[in-house]
Amino acid sequence: MQLDIDRLIAHFGGVNALAEALKQHDPNNAPSTAAIYKWRTRGSLPLAQLNKLTELAQNQGKTLDLNHFIQPQNESEHPIMNTNNRVIIFDTTLRDGEQSPGAAMSKEEKVRIARQLEKMGVDVIEAGFAAASEGDWAAVNEIAKTVKNSTICSLSRAVERDIRRAGEALAPAEKRRIHTFIATSPIHMEHKLKMLPEQVIQAAVKAVKIAKEYTDDVEFSCEDALRSEVGFLAQICGAVIEAGATTINLPDTVGYSVPHLTEKFFRDVIAQTPNSDKVIWSTHCHNDLGLAVANSLAALQGGARQIECTVNGLGERAGNAAIEEIVMALKVRHDVFGYETGIDATQIVTASKLVSTVTGYPVQPNKAVVGANAFSHESGIHQDGVLKHRETYEIMSAESVGWAANRLTLGKLSGRNAFKTKLAELGIELDSEEALNAAFARFKELADKKREIFDEDLHALVSDEMSNLSETYKFVSQHIVTETGESPRAEIVFSIDGVEHRAESTGSGPVDAIFKAIESVAQSGAILEIYSVNAVTKGTESQGETSVRLAKDGRVVNGQGADTDVLVATSKAYLSALSKLASGVDKIKAQGGI
To answer: Is residue 593 part of a domain?
Structure first.
């Protein structure tokens, strides 16, 4: 029985009138106004309170027939197959997230993020697109060797070469999945694939059968599913289920859908697909209309039991559904959804900061859950309410998502072994003694400049040091002169392939002078698209983390730098971006992106 709590409260004159009436009826055990608001928010109330309402109605001479407040239940509201309330969290930060302009990651960076995702409890980690490049294959393979608790997945087109490359890369994984896809919407089949529907079904079935040679865990995606015809989807999904697929993904590839239609769409496809109860149904939503999270949650209501998402909502165009928002929505509103995940929510902020540092994509302050302002209160009324009782304006605590426990217990007297141990706790494993020694030396320098060291400092420090070890352009030193009324001057020393160069220039500001000085030697011809500065932690002693995005001949790269001197960080970021341009490494274009 589900009661319409809004109508029930209104029957007694509203929240305030009901609270006052209950107080007069039973002064010692009356619920507070806030408690009654919670009844309405949750859509339920304790049985003992329901009995009190019955007594109150009798005392007031009112008739309280609960049958009048029972909400009608739709027989088809929950498909029979969905008795399981466990939601599989499939993270695609390392694949779809990397499709953000300039967000390409090195193998070492991908492994660090994969370790954090494993620590967070992610069920499936999509480690990359193994067939896209040798670098992608190596990253997927290394993650397959490293991660033990999460299933490791590689995406592949419905092309035999792609699938076999994925299978080979995933071979070392204790738990592995091949994720193959093909477009199913009329517009994609006609204009992109130039294939008939029957040919698309044949290709999909063949792809799944080849994938089954490497693993029993095969996911099939219908690219642009939400703009596909339900009848055709039921046909192709039924065929790949018969071929051995174990997960079926219906992605909103272009971010076109809206929640109520997403829920209905999943219900319809599942209802019409033969053997639909033999697979897990998955949702993968893009955020072009800002509805990725809402659509993902609606898909759950329609029968999905896997959500594909990324840290910070990273992804091509407007991004993907954000893992932190999905997880906390299910956790905070468990009364509405009733679903469980295996995620350790206290690891969310750490994951967010790591991905931001590695990719150079800063998190906006007003970002839900992980933004700097997510638990800040400017309004005096809000501040007063939170001080008196946190739940007046906070539906979750900062600690519950990992905001509090990020202070490092090391200092400038800490030894190399303690430093190495702490890095391991953060999922950072350096491949060589040279890298460890260089990072430890940087740590000592930082500890001399900062009284408090945070985990974020270490992530930024290691990212910066690892880049400096491997890049073509390396920062050496600089001298910046700036004075009001005078043009700032930058004198910079940096190396290119081990050869030192000195450069100097003036500019409209110190940053402009730095970039012009570097370019006077580099002559890259690149266009500066974005320059951003972010404080790694709180306080005036914080490291500055800078990001530079350069574009040239259709290629886009991001460079990052970190230092307590933000102008040094700026030079490092620009040189890092130039190194990526100089590498000339490009991925092959995939058939599409789900």
So the answer is: no
